[in-house]
Amino acid sequence: MAFRSLIRLQKVLLPQNAISRSISIMPIKCGRFRSSEYFQGPEHHPEVEVIKNPPEWKYVEHLIERKLIPQPEVKTEYSSGWKPQDPEKYKDLSYFIKRTRNHMLPVYLRITYRGNRRITFIKNIEGDIWKLEQECIDLIKSKTNNNPQYSQINEMNRTIKIKGDYVTLIQKYLYSKGL
């Protein structure tokens, strides 16, 4: 919009042949493609040698973003406390929690109202969501001296919200179940 009004102003103040010269030398103050130099042809650029499978390529490969996240190495114990899914443990459960694409449990903490409200949020639940919610509430009640717990289940989004900060407690519980 401002560019059009500038042209109208220049048409009033400058003669017709001076408008094109003033616009072409007018600097653009943003970092868009219009501010870059024009391509002058391949003769003005350095020669590039294309090499297929050089031995130095291994140093460049780790800089390129991977399309898929690799499977984690199988270990007996991880220093972060993370555990891979164990199909032998969760095959008898009536529910399943799908891991994120980074192989993490989708259990999150949402802090709202300037830090005054904390909600534990569980996503990607498949199967009997009501049973999982009841198990989580019973677990939290056993750890908090039977304090009443408030939760909300959204079957369409396959999520559970539990009032309070119980992320680590629920993650440990789900890891023990093999999920």
Number of helices: 6
What Rg do the Cα atoms give? 30 Å
The number of strands is 6
Let me know the average pLDDT: 82
Along the chain, the helix and strand elements come as: HHHHEEEEHEEH
| Shape by Cα distribution | elongated
Low-confidence stretches: none
Roughly how many Å apart are the termini?
56 Å
Relative strand content: 15-25%
Q: The biggest beta sheet, please?
A: 4 strands, antiparallel
Which strand order does the major sheet show? 2-3-6-5
Structural class by secondary-structure content: alpha+beta
**Into which percent range does the helicity of residues fall?**
25-40%
Account of the 3D structure:
This protein is an alpha+beta fold. Helices cover 31% and strands 15% of the residues. It is built from 6 helices and 6 strands, in the order H-H-H-H-E-E-E-E-H-E-E-H. It has a 4-stranded antiparallel sheet, with helices on one face. Strand 2 (107-112) and strand 3 (117-122) form a beta hairpin. It is elongated, with a radius of gyration of 30 Å. The model has no long low-confidence stretch (mean pLDDT 82).
